[in-house]
Structures are given as structure tokens and as C-alpha cells.
Amino acid sequence: AQRVTQPEKLLSVFKGAPVELKCNYSYSGSPELFWYVQYSRQRLQLLLRHISRESIKGFTADLNKGETSFHLKKPFAQEEDSAMYYCALKDRDDKIIFGKGTRLHILP
Amino acid sequence: DSGVTQTPKHLITATGQRVTLRCSPRSGDLSVYWYQQSLDQGLQFLIQYYNGEERAKGNILERFSAQQFPDLHSELNLSSLELGDSALYFCASSPGFTGGLAATDTQYFGPGTRLTVL
What are the residue ranges in chain A where pLDDT is below 70? Predict the structure, then answer.
């Protein structure tokens, strides 16, 4: 079955420290993977997608097919990174599956 | 502001009732997506419409239905409501489906409708 797992409900990181938000997926085939972010009192918005291989707000994510992972990383956390982060998978039928989310809390 | 609007913001109703949630996509977007967000299930994809036609279906209950109208706004109908249907319902829009390979696939989310079933 298709599944997206974000093992951490809450991740607290000190400002300036590296951040890694874990995402593992279960899918037979080549999925399209995304990270979405929801800042306090704001709408859910796309952060990045694996197909673009982009870096947004200092975040990157690499698709590791061998480990079926798409972890989100940032070398130096900033206070404004505090938010809810969702990993999502889109299959060939355009169905979208979200993980349950990880709340990132940046400590001053 | 992403341009996606949803009405109403809040809805309180009783079990067994029927409600309609409305979504207006961004100008020019042809695809509309509906999601349910609850504390225990997280964000669940319900259904997608593209230019009036159903495009993809997720974990949508038979008691729920949706449609997209010629002016591209969409409605999500929830009937025979149960306590467990209490959740935040999000709508998102995108320019169009592309098989996932182009920037037009980016979804823009609305603020959501909070449904409380008593």
C-alpha cells in the first residue's frame, strides 16, 4: 500500500543547528515527492518538489530510492523555520498521500 | 494570499445533517483538490477535479460527493454527518494536471473550512 511516514511528530532544534525532517515512503514505482509547509496562521504551501531539485529557504531534499526516503534538510536552522512540515507523495494516478506532519520548533 | 477562497470559514451542525462546502480556485486554475485534515488521520486527499471532470479519487467516503461547475468553482457535499467527520476541510487549486512534471502542478491551498459535528 502507498504510504508516507514522518516518524517525528515534533522536532526541536536550536537556532543555527542542522535540521533534518525525516520522510519515508512506500510506493511501487517512481513517485513524485513534495514537501509542504504551514507556518502559524498561514495556509499550507509548497516548499519544494524532488523533480525540481531546488533549494528553497535553504532547505533541500534528496530522493533516495534505495532507502525510499525524501528527508528534508537545512544546514543552519533559523527561528522563522518553525512550522508544520508535511511530506507528500503523488502517484501515477494523481492521487496524493500526505504524511502526518512534523512540527519543527526552533529554539533560540 | 494564494487566491483560493473557501466558504464558510466555520460550520457547526448536528449528526445526520448534510452540508455543502464551497471553494473558488485561483483565477485561471483548472484543477481543484479537496482534503480533510483531522487530528488522528492527518491530511487526507479526498478528490480532484480538472476542468469539470473527476480526475483522481482518494479516501473519500460514499457519504461525500463533490463537483466542479462550469465556472470552475467546486462544492464538497457531506451527508449523514457523523461525529468523526469533524475536521478541517481544505481546497487547493492548480493550473492543471501535467503528470507531475511541470511547474503547473503546484497546488495553492485555501484557508479551509472548519466543520464541527455535534
Answer: none
